[in-house]
Amino acid sequence: MFFGTPAFAVPTLEALLASSHRVVGAVTQPDRPRGRGQRLEPTPVKVTAERAGIPVLQPERLKDDAVIDRIRQLDADLGVVAAYGRILPQRLIDVPRLGMINVHASLLPRWRGAAPIHRAVIAGDTETGVTIMRVVLALDAGPMLAHRRAVIGPEDTSADLETRLAGAGASLLVETADRIGEGPLVEESQDESLVTYAARLERRESAIDWQRSAREIHNQIRGLQPWPLAAALLQGRRVLLLRSTVATDVPSGAAPGLVVAVEPDALVVATGDGAIRLTTIQPEGRPPMAVRAFLSGRHVVPGDRLDPLPVVQP
């Protein structure tokens, strides 16, 4: 039985469908209104499951007796969870005879919680990975069955990393399910002294504090993708900051937030420690564009400022 919701979960479901295991059903979040028209959209997992012809359940409440009875009727040996989005009740965890396992996008016990990929990038981590663990009632606290490491490159965004980890998690999950089918696995308890938490992202995190270091701001820009995205005000208009590099050849001393150089392919902005090159941005109401394209239609000169956004409440 598969539990998952967003695009991150789809490679795992697809890998299971292509494996020797039989997926008897998928549980995913209910359709939600999205976009300007607020039309109901199915989750990526629902689309994939329906295309494969397997039953789909979209309960509002996992604790309802009818929901648990329906899942029990499907008679799954094993439950597989990949970014479902809710804590599973113990009554549900106990349904499959071999329990439930989860694909988590970090090297546990680092970055338990809702946004492990984003928090790893924002923190400037140079390594992460995926962990297959037993599902328990506590948040991402179950014993570990397998893990696979992955390098975080200095320019990787959280969106880049998510794509890679989704694929790595999918293959590792199928390998682990194969091994479970052959007999009990060695399970490694997590070291509680090493736990860090990956809190859910909030819209207010878009605002850049230019007093921070260039490295911290660069990590913020690449770690807030694809949402909520780092942003600032340039000439009084909101711009989203999508790609950047840390400038290593710019004299320091300028006021944080000041444009200190306008290069053919970048805006160089002073920070509290060093400077940052902005290379891809998205002006309000426009598609993402390289700074070269942006500058062809906008007059920006050294001395202009990128001001912080007004504080937005969560």
Please tell me about this protein's structure.
- With 314 residues, the chain is α/β, with parallel strands linked by helices.
- The protein has 2 domains: 197 residues, Formyl transferase, N-terminal domain (Rossmann fold), CATH 3.40.50; 105 residues, Formyl transferase, C-terminal domain (Methionyl-tRNA Fmet Formyltransferase, Chain A, domain 2, Roll).
- The strands form 4 sheets. A 7-stranded mixed sheet has the order 5-2-1-6-7-9-10. Strands 12, 13, 14, 15, 16, 17 and 18 form a 7-stranded antiparallel sheet that branches.
- Helix 1 runs parallel beside helix 2 and helix 5 runs antiparallel to helix 7.
- The longest helix has 25 residues.
- The chain starts with a strand and ends in a 7-residue tail after the last strand.
- The model has no long low-confidence stretch (mean pLDDT 95).
What would you call the shape?
elongated
Task: Tell me which CATH architecture of the largest domain applies here.
Answer: 3-Layer(aba) Sandwich
Largest sheet: 7 strands, mixed
Q: What count of domains describes the coordinates? A: 2
One letter per element, helices H and strands E, the order comes to EHEEEHEHEHEEHEEHEHEEEEEEHE
Distance between the termini: 35 Å
Mean pLDDT, rounded to whole units? 95
Please report the total strand number as a whole number.
Answer: 18
Structural class designation: alpha/beta
CATH structural fold name of the largest domain: Rossmann fold
Task: Specify Rg, calculated over alpha carbons.
Answer: 22 Å
Poorly predicted regions: none
> In CATH, what is the class of the largest domain?
Alpha Beta
Count of DSSP H/I helices:
8
* Spatial order of the strands forming the largest sheet: 5-2-1-6-7-9-10
Q: Strand portion, in percent?
A: 25-35%
